[in-house]
Amino acid sequence: MAKHHVEAIVNGDAVEFLCETEETLLDVLRDTLHLTGSKEGCASGDCGACSVTLDGRLVCSCLVLGCEVGGRHIETIEGLARGEALHPLQQHFLEHAALQCGICTPGFLVAAKSLLERHPDPTETEIRYWLAGNLCRCTGYDKIISAVQDAAAAMRKG
Amino acid sequence: MAETMTNGHSQGFVGTRTIRPDGVDKVTGRARFGADYNLPGQLIGRVLRSPHPHARIVSIDTSKAEALPGVKAVITRDDFGDQSSEFIPAGEMMMNYKDVIRNVMAREKVLYEGHAVAAVAATSAAVARRALKLIDVKYEVLPHVIDVVEAMRPGAPLLHDDLFTVGVEPKPDKPSNVAKRVEITLGDVEAGFTKADVIVEREFKTAPVHQGYIEPHAALATFSEDGSAELWCTTQGHYIVRAHCARLLGMDIGKLRVTATEIGGGFGGKTTIYLEPLALALSRKAKRPVKMVMSREEVFKATGPTSGATIHVKLGATKDGKFVAAFAELKYQAGAFQGSPVQPGVMCAYAPYDIENVKVIGYDVVSNRPKVAAYRAPGAPISEYAVESVVDEIAKKLGLDGIELRMMNAAHEGTKAAYGPKFGPIGLEETLNSIKKTEHWNTPLRKWQGRGVASGFWFNIGGETSVSLTVNEDGTVSLMVGTPDIGGLRASLAMVAADELGVPYDKVRPIIGDTGSLGFNFLTGGSRSAFSGSMAIVEAAKQIKTELCARAGKLWELKPDQVEFSDGHVRALGASADKFKPMSLADFAKVAGKTGGPIAGSGRINAQGAGPSLGTHLVDLEVDPETGRVTILRYTVAQDAGKALHPAYVEGQFQGGAVQGIGWALNEEYIYGADGKLQNAGFLDYRMPVASDVPKIDAIVVEVANPRHPYGVRGVGETPIVPPLGAIANAMENATGIRFTELPMSPPKVLKALKEKAASGKA
Q1: Which of B151, B261, B393, B752 lies 20 to 30 Å from A81 when distance is taken between CA atoms?
Q2: Coil, strand or helix: which one is B198?
């Protein structure tokens, strides 16, 4: 069967690609568009390492097919920093030592940004439940939660 | 050079919370992990795995797969020569090449579901998958055994007909599944128990748990026709990978260059090899680069969890609370090949305590499960969980609180450990005191809530380490180390290099070198990489400082004792002090060519003097009597770091270890069906803690300096996973009045125990 021809917007840039029906958005991002910041930890939507937003909605890109994203806006970890400046979440993750190995970090950052867009002032519990779809095996989540709380406070101050 | 040459500690980056040098790349997605590497012309490799837990391989026919268009190579056992039996160190454990080759690719038999049987390299993943289905393997299915106690019974299905128990007299004349019996003794336990006023004796069981790193194993290999090869892989030790792969492929070590990619977690599970030799063998056959990445299911089924175990503990104390005799018998699952961490389990069992009479026996038992791999303080959480549970029961019987009883028996400087050494300064008492002072310890609890405390011990190791420091043309410093950075290593070591050389932290660029760039490095494991790496850096910096003083002496025409290195500069001393402007690294860099050439130092050591790290954990939890679900309410860790080079990453080790321990205690387990197949090979059913499962983890960094390290460092990475199992079990007893003796304490088990207790109460 012929491949699908898909046009979409990734991190603000128009992209087009060909993909097999079975290829996931994660496969397309990593293997075709060479955006390897999104990670595959499970391929079953359980670890969140492949988190991206699709038209502003947080999804596991391993659970979306590449051929489904035609005409849609996708934001990945590579689009988080604006120009020279890191996003406040990125900066606070660094300052809090909220990453150890760093494999889950892109997914956490994308998910946390999505949270703060909806809830600029989340409680600790709200942060923990929002991020419950992202597995981290190194940090015990403590410093990740602190980093998100501090980034949220900084972003509210503008 | 004057003898006052200091280590330059005054500048003091060490002990501060610097931003890690590799941080920006890791928050922007730029950092390249195992699966992020690609080469032009690469093929995709896939592994065919056994559907049976135990079977003889009658034949393997690969002809149809080889004929499939797009398939460039198929390998089986026939592509690897056999290996003779030889034990070699692997992390803190031992492995045997005869077994390694069989685990990498099954030979006579498959020994667990998921055991590799063949591998293919093809032009795409889809073609590779189709090719696997065309490989025809004929099996003669054999009876299997999963449980460790059943595997020890006479008449149990035998995994290896050449496995005779080592460590028993007389030598057995029949093979069995018991690979080894080990024993340590101190004093006379039988006599000791006669002095005890209270004795508690119990049996415990723990389930095998996986390290659960989020990054699956990945390898990219390219083999040249000239017999040399390059390999990129996610590993805790690329020199170890190089040694093992060169051996299995019959190569010179020097012809294989291995680069450790960024590593997405390891916890001991990436101290061995799985895909790496397969990717190399496929590349050699296909004459093209081959990339292989495991699926999560493959990670669960075919890579090492740690042992499940059955543990028998008997501990005696006087009525005043002094431990007088301690006995334990440990039976650890090794998986399909011998080499469980039972030896360290035996050694650690009673190590936190000062007891005159100790006897611990351990058995290393094979069964039809994946071969275990190291997991954070291998073996220790299991045996110490059982011991800490019994310690808690003794405290209850004597009406003492858990901290009081542990304080009375705590090992300290001068204590003779049952496993051999006399301890130097260690910090268990300090951690107990720190916990006792917390607000947490003194907060009241409500019904269905419980509080538990437990301590833990891990040895830590040093080992072969090689680093280089190079002063660049502009005076900046390149630091090269050969141990992968899994949790802030670059930051810790860059601070040490900056302090040693008196340069700003951001002028030191740490790099993880490939196997061609430095001498041999043992792996990142055993909590050794910051400990040993910083020692090696001190050596390398010393060479640079000596060299710079010699060069300044020549420039200034002064004798060696008339110059010194301090605060990042070589200075003339005494009467000459005012005559010569002190020279910085940058000044020397400018004149390097004229004064003798490039400036560099290399530290090559076999680091000795690792200091044990002890810790104490305090946990509050609440049991839901309707569902059996346990919620962790509050958690405090106190652990002796010796010296925290980077306090935030030390705290991170404490917090991460505690949460892994929470998973081990409450939810995680390998579940097998009667068919010997793993039923929960995915993150949905193998339930690791998520953010909403845990509270903040308070971390108290205790610093009792290790006198054998220039900065006082002990390792910190492993001890944090030791106390949680016991602390949580003790809190469960406190909440419910039930002593749980089986892990995990998952909701069905808790609910069952609550119902049984309620029923017996009514009867």
Answers
A1: B261
A2: strand
